[in-house]
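## tool: complex_structure
## caller: assistant
## args:
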Amino acid sequence: MLESGKKQTVKKADVILLVVVLITAGIMLFFRQFIHAPGGFARVSYDGAPVAEIPLSEKGAAYYLFVGQNFFSFTEKEWQAANLIPAGNAESSYNAFVCRDGEIRMIQSNCPDLICVHHRAISRTGENIICLPHGVVIEIVGARGQELDGVVY
Amino acid sequence: MKKKSVLLGFLLALSMILSYIESILPLNIGIPGAKLGLPNLVVVILLYRYGGREALLVNTLRILLTGFLFGNLSSILYAFAGALCSFFSMVVMRKTGRFSLAGVSIAGGIFHNLGQMLVAVFVVETYAPLFYLPFLLAAGAVTGFVIGIAAMRLLPYLQRHTGF
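## result:
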């Protein structure tokens, strides 16, 4: 309990704690840049199970749509012609993302927080976009995995 | 006793407003899950003024009420994971007696983020969320420090002017 009027001040230990944590985070980031090379594939998983692996090297733009449990891919023309998602009008949860110039970006989702849509484009190994409300993870991997049931292009 | 329940109710209302403000403030700095931790202001003030029981009570009620008002079940789950980790780390840090409110709040910020990240790992069943560990460590420490200093400045005023 605090006696009334007694003023607290920042202690030396507080500042040391802050600095140590910041340095630790900095060291982790510093070493990580050596590990995270440009990736080759983007692995899409739903509730922990891999759904698809997308090559990042494709020419032009490729659009992908994950609705409920189903995964679809489109060329840029198809995507624009189809106009698949009337915004906010889908009944099941969906995530749409595009792969362009070796980068993956989430472009649409009907999740409540839209953190995945606001996430910057990813291209390096280990980087990921997570849509927590939908349980969808897009993760950049170096090479194609072995444990897949099927691969969608 | 009567006065205390009024104060706790008042602080509960205040913490709900703070969580609402936090939910509409777009803190888009490229770190998913990073936030200011404004409601923690009320938690640390209660922890120092009354003790762990009152702080935990008000924070639990806040999470349930704001969760049902503005969120959903999964947002309540995340909020609890963060809040409980944060709360116990702050109680332990306070017990050591080596840190001021600022240091205690730093631990709260860090452990809040760690707790939520662990839940995220279980939800998506991959280790992908751990990618953000360094960012969330740093963000938690900085926001915790700022909130701690704010609470430190606030406490004497509250005592002097409201008899809190």
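## assistant note: Helices of chain B lie at 2-24, 39-49, 52-70, 73-96, 101-124, 133-162. Chain B touches chain A through 45 residues (CB under 8 Å). Handing back to user.
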